[in-house]
Amino acid sequence: MPSRRLFRVSESIRSVLARLVTRERTLDGKLITITGVEVSPDLRHAQVYVTHLDGSSPDADVIHTLNMLKEEWQGELNKTLHIKYTPRLHFHVDEAQKRGDRILQIMSEIEPPSESAPS
Hints:
CATH architecture: 2-Layer Sandwich
CATH topology: GMP Synthetase, Chain A, domain 3
CATH class: Alpha Beta
Number of helices: 3
Number of strands: 3
Strand order of the largest sheet: 1-2-3
Strand content: 15-25%
Order of helices and strands: HEEHEH
Structural class: alpha+beta
Largest sheet: 3 strands, mixed
Distance between the termini: 43 Å
């Protein structure tokens, strides 16, 4: 279980990145959401999980765009967070949304039992 400090740092990073995503013009209108951040115990690395609602852009393109912004955003984190080391950002597509959508699709395809079938 992560410590309270790691949780606070993760949430602070998520909050700052969410603000930066809404301000960033190079994202070309892509609807990107920062769904979570996991910080390593030494605070040197942060795994940033994102989803995007722009169906026309493949996941790899979105991650590539975010990686181009990584250094600038790490600089912004350095100014905002008051910690010894600014974590290096590593962006990943959050697959939880896709898995959830797939489960809902499968559930909608299941036919309910007929009324005449014995229970």
